[in-house]
Structure prediction request, 642 residues.
Amino acid sequence: MLASLLQNLINALQWGSFYALIALGYTLVYGVLTLINFAHGDVFMVGAYIAFFVATFLLAAAGLPGWAALALTIPLTMLLTSLVGVSLERIAYRPLRRKGANRLYVVITALMCGLILEHANLALLGASRKAFPTLIDEQVYTLGGVSFTNLKIAVIVTAVLVFVLLHWIVTRTRVGMAMRAISCDKFAVPLMGIPIDTIIVATFALGSGMAGLAGLLFAMSYPILEPYMGALIGWKAFIAAVVGGIGDIRGAFLGGFLLGAVEIMVVAFFPSTFRDLIAFSVLMIILVWKPTGLFGVAKTTKI
Amino acid sequence: MVLRHYTVPILLAVAGGVLLYVAKEELVSLYVLSVLMFMGVNVILATSLNLVNGYMGEFSCGHAGFMCVGAYVASILGVLLFSGHKAFGAAWLPAELAVWGFPLLILAGGAAAALAGLLVAIPSYKTRGDYLAIITLAANYIIISLIENLDIIGGSRGFMGMKKIVNGMEEAVALPWMPLWVLAFTVFCVWLLRRYLSSTFGKGVTAISQDEVAAEIMSIDTNKIKTITFMLSSGLAGIAGGLFAFIVGYVNPGSFNILKSTEVLVMVYLGGMGSLSGSILAAILFTVLLEALRPLQIIKWVVIPLLLIIIMQFRPEGLMGNRELGDLFPRLKRFYRFK
Prediction:
């Protein structure tokens, strides 16, 4: 009983890590721009594909050993994925923001960008699924009836490290201070000599880089890639970010793990088709109980 | 002009007559007819979502969930009453009665969807903005997931048997019933929304979107308005769902997923928040665009979003902004009146 509980806990931590990594990107962009970047799930998908191409190229064309390829794939994937995120911001969101469009029109544009990424991928690469190459050998350790692989541990540790890093960036560095300033008052910030567009680009680069990392880790753990893999996981990660209290990094991290845990526990005790039903009902009850999420602060409204 | 009071009814009667003639003489193909019917369904969906997203200023992104409730309730009731099903046994009523029962079926679907709207309406007392958006999203997932797990109505395989009812109606009285009912319900929905929004009670909806706290201080019962508005919006989505189910003759939970909700959202924002005529225009344009680009197959879903992004760049407030047709062309007001 205890062993199976621990086993499920490890699975939940791994599954929650993916949600947490994606939710961090949502919450960063939301915190700065109050924009729901609905293309983020698809940026994650693009990240997985970029990782696939980089890794295959390094393994086959350059003939590197697995560990060296992995060491190069991680930074390259993060860099290229953040380029995708930044170019979305430059091409689609920034002109709208400059025109002073209603925030929801930017949200709809983000939705459209996600659709374009998905279907352009489908049109360019075809509907066949891609198998991700093995970069490191998976080793299974068993400890008192609980089995875990080195990959699972790596995923969980990476998620925690990324969270610590982001939290440090946001609370301790100048860029982070500027991000928090923008979320406080968008109009006073340029007057203080803070380059608002540079900060926004930095935010998108950070968030998309995390999505790229999540894509790489996801592709290594579940080595089948398809164009629609980002859509569902993206929506769910967004829900996780909101349940945690959107705009707060701790909230996104916790919300991601919470959603992962609920989903794995439901699958452990109920038929797996009940997963969405129970997971979303739980999240809805949390939101009704705490209307601004776990870490969110209720804003006072003035007339 | 006295006549302007009758312009809209006369135009609608003419449209109905033309539709009747064209469908009966089979002047247009069934394909064109079905595209026209989907247009009607999309008009209902877009205008009803505009009530919440445009006029009330909330961001609901789970409209397809309520459509799903309406579609399933209308089709299950229809099959139960008029055609019989292997899981429920024989039909309870003779199939000829379907001619009279059909609008009641659709309305029952709408009523059920309105009840499902409470799922969103009650949390909306305390929650708002993006948190409410998530609740609508979760409601969509919950509804679909619930139906997928109900094996008696087919689960994720879907539910069918509605074509028999439509055929039965056409045998009983030889008229193209589906196009007529779609037209009737579309006009009914737009008329209802127009009446609701221009009533004293409905002005509260716009007041909530502008400033909820101030509206409450001005003695507007915001909770009551939110409940009724959400229920009306989801109820109309249910009507659209019922019509959709009977047009296609087959429903499965997969066709009411987030992608469908996204389509409706796009129609609302393309037309402009807070403009009924904008939503109607956008729904018609979007349906035509979807069908016109069908030969492109998968590239269609690259071209359409790209087109929409470009439109957004040039008209960042949607096609009509928050104006109606009569505000854009004031002279037209001399010739028609639609209240």
About this structure: The domain at 3-334 of chain B is CATH 1.10.3470 (ABC transporter involved in vitamin B12 uptake, BtuC). Chain B touches chain A through 47 residues (CB under 8 Å). Chain B has one domain: 3-334.
